[in-house]
Task: structure prediction
Amino acid sequence: MRRVWKLLFGRYLLVTNTVSSGVLMLAGDMAAQEIENRLENKNAASGRNWQRMCNMTLVGLSQGPLHHYLYKWMDALLPGASVRTVFKKIAIDQFAISPIFIITYLYSAGLLEGASVTDCTDELQHKYWTIYTADWLVWPPTQFINFYLLSPKYRVLYINAITMLYNVFLCYIKHNDDLVLQLTGKARAKTDPSSTSS
Result:
């Protein structure tokens, strides 16, 4: 068991980070769909969207390598775990990396679901600030623990575990405009299908 663990978090760390990202995104979407079904009083089996679950898994798999290499780059750029260094890493994460992941998440999920680039852009404009505000509530304290206490080889797994919970929110907000309406008071403008291009 110890040998397998060393391989997973040593030689095969990229694979571990990629697969765990996909599996935990899937788990987050399953939980989000369960919440949606209960709110709409649907039967869980009949209301489950398998294509959406597959799409969210692919999105997670695509984000695993990004996390893997971004954390390696950040640790090389800012080695050590002093409080000052940790706050610098949190600033990079919040001001640079977080916006990248929000954009790639909404575009990759949207395109996999058959939306046009214009539709994805409209959705990004409508939901970006709600997601980014939530990011500020969740990730700075999470990342402080990550950068200050954890070994670099466990960073992505830890983030994926927290992300599984956060993905419930992401998947719900991705597929339900009503939450954004409740939070911001702004309805999403509907795009005329005849005017959009992929």
